[in-house]
Amino acid sequence: MSDLDQLDDLDLLDDDLAFDDDPITPVAAQSTPQSQPQGKPSVGMIRDIPVEVTVEVSRRSLALKELMAIEPSSVIMLDKQEGEPVDIKINGVLFGTGNIIAQNGKYGVQVLSLVDNDHHE
Q: Where would I find the Flagellar motor switch protein FliN-like C-terminal domain in this sequence (predicted)?
């Protein structure tokens, strides 16, 4: 199967990609749209990429002998108190903090604050 045949199998949105008649356009020959400041990449192509959201309640280190003693009825106590904020991570990187909530029989996390990871300024 050729590379072009594999591209046909991809599920891409037409408004996310703009192709000229030539299927391969050198990067240097591509023009930057006037509405988009130079140096700022478009998020159009990446906005539907799934990311993993993790809510980390707490961490605990155990000695190997403690780990080996765990049974189905065991309880592992955590460092955080009930009601303390939990960490929200995106692909393993701290994104913010929140509170665990229960709504309509499901658990969720209410975002309290976001971490400023913008180190470019």
A: 46-115
pLDDT of residue 97: 96
Position 120 in a domain:
no
**Domain assignment present for 121:** no
pLDDT tens digits for range 60-74: 999 999 999 999 999
Structural domain of residue 70, as residue ranges? 3-114
Give the single-character DSSP code of 80.
S
Average pLDDT over residues 86-106: 94
What would the DSSP string read from start to end of 7-75?
A: HHTS---GGG----SSS---GGGPPPPTTS-TT---STTTTT----EEEE-------HHHHHT--TT--
Q: How many domains does the chain have?
A: 1
Give the CATH number, domain containing residue 91: 2.30.330.10
